[in-house]
Amino acid sequence: MNFERIREKLNILADAAKYDVSCSSSGSKRKNTTKGLGDSSGMGICHSYTEDGRCISLLKILLTNHCIFDCAYCVSRKSNDIKRAGFKIQEVVDLTINFYRRNYIEGLFLSSGIFSSPDYTMERLIAVAKKLRLEENFNGYIHLKSIPGCSDELMREAGLYADRLSINIEIPTVSGLKLLAPEKDHKDFIKPIEKVKNEIIQYQADKKLIKNTPVYAPAGQSTQMIVGATGESDKDIMYSAVHYYSTYKMKRVYYSGYVPVLHDERLPALGTEVPMLRENRLYQTDWLLRFYGFDVRELLNNQHPNLDIDIDPKLSWALRNMNLFPVDVNKADKRMLARIPGLGMLSVNKILNARKYRRLNWENLKAIGIAMNRAKYFIVCDSKDWEHKDLEPAHIKSMILQSSQSKYQKMYNKQLRLFN
Amino acid sequence: MKTQKLKYDGTFEGLLTAIFTVYEERLSSAHIIEERFFEPDFFSELITVFTDENKASRVWEGLKSFQQFRTSVYRSFLSGLPDKEVHILDAIQYVLKTKNDKDYGHPSVLKMAQITKQIGREKHRMEAFVRFKRTKDDIYVAIIEPDFNVLPLIAKHFKNRYADQQFVIYDRSRSYGIFYDLNSVQFIELDFNDTVLKEALHDEEKHYDEMWQDYFISTGIKSRINKKLHLRNVPKRYWKYLNEKKPL
């Protein structure tokens, strides 16, 4: 094996793949029952972390960065003058197996530029997964990209070998896609997603009747959207995220702050700061929707098309709905407890357990570990001591901001200054 | 009244036997201590505990209805902390008397829960941070120096995962290791020598080592660098055996 050449390819093709943020390796049920290699039945493991703080659990590479498309936001676009390379199928298999055997990774994340045709590209991705599963008896995690516009038959086959399939929407609005990726059709993205969704439903139904139905994409589907490339609002992004969660039963939607890598008039200039704080607020919103029982219309609507940058989305919702507070933590139901700023689901469950034995006071709440500086304006408990005054939302906000030191403070001060 | 010092051999069965003895002889102020830390004094009575599997398993069976607590007993033992026996005995006596195995208001029960959590974290870290090197005779070797004695806890994970590969994980700070021979995992003791290991490495090893280091660099995004977060995720004390963090 020519290691020098492979090393060079790895550098090029890992560099091109790094803007895909998904790195989860959990949620699969592939047990090592045949004395083969690998086991992905438990939780995912982060084997290392990049210097920007993201987890490394999969070998994340492109099969090739040759691409026939010219999408403005993508490093690998046709018109970009960069080094191009392509792996042979066997090379990817060898790299995966050898990294896995050394406990570097949990599995493979394979994406690709689109060369000759979507079907041809997808066939090659599947060939890698197939070889790993059938020839190498590999039970580690495999995440394959679905290629926009590829056929249903191939998507069916892909799910038989991969644990997760994903396709990146990238641009949340149809108009934005037209602007930045004029050659791509929105429908081409939806078709594979639809197919995989139906296959998963089919699998779950068959599984009930026939126990040995071959597993189909056990870790489900995910997608990713770029934030801050086309001037879309937070409302646009979250409404389409909700659409993907509900219509296509996605496991995850990822948000990726746009990193300017190319000069293009349609995009933010090179050197523009990555909107990391905005990305963080979007993830917070995503969590509120999936775990806290919020409806997206409560958090984002025509009056509030964008999230507050200086405070988290739950607090900002609470300040707009002061009529619902204060909440009595000893009486309120789970749904309402989850809506109190400063309480996470962990604290909510602890409160529900603890209040069976005694009425909770400030001391108890502190011991449970809730964020008092925010919560205290919104709750009453077993104590006469609580915020009696009818405070204005703006006043509460300023008191909370004064009493807390956000690690992001530097950022939003800078961002606010733009409007002064 | 004199305290009774119970000296045991440092094995888990030994500890359980000691606990059995406390009940059997109705000792009221017992202090269990590992042989190697034992120092005789005039104020306490010495009892030497001879490890007895039968007695040990009776204690273990006695805790059967408190599954979570029982795991916590074993993990606290593995922590190697100097006062572990005190908390374990105290907690077991409390739990067997009151059946409140989840009462974290009790200091020893709470302490054990905390230790268990710490060990769980270390176990998970080791499942992530073990880095194998392939040798010429096709055994994959890793060296670790974990904060706690987690080898017995991680053996199963690695056995399931690498069912078709022989491996050794060697705990340098505790001078023992585990060896999987494609059938079962055994505990081994050996003298480890860096130069010998280096010579024994497979020719390919250098290449994969380099490629992993390269990959680590090329997969990071420079415009998003966050060193503080990075250090929290990968604390410096683990860098020694992480090839991607090898100091240049």
UniProtKB/TrEMBL annotation, chain A:
Gene3D superfamilies the UniProt entry points to: Aldolase class I
Source organism, top-level taxon: Bacteria
Cofactor(s) recorded in Swiss-Prot or TrEMBL: [4Fe-4S] cluster
UniProt cross-references to Pfam families, sorted A to Z: Radical_SAM
Domain Radical SAM core: 62-199
Keywords from the named record: Iron, Iron-sulfur, Metal-binding, S-adenosyl-L-methionine
A molecular function (GO) term: iron-sulfur cluster binding
NCBIfam families named among the record's database cross-references: rSAM_link_UDG
Protein name (Swiss-Prot/TrEMBL): Putative DNA modification/repair radical SAM protein
Automatic annotation (TrEMBL), chain B:
Sequence ranges assigned to domain DUF4130 in this UniProt record: 83-244
The organism's place on the tree of life at top rank: Bacteria
Classification via Pfam families: DUF4130
Full protein name: Putative DNA metabolism protein
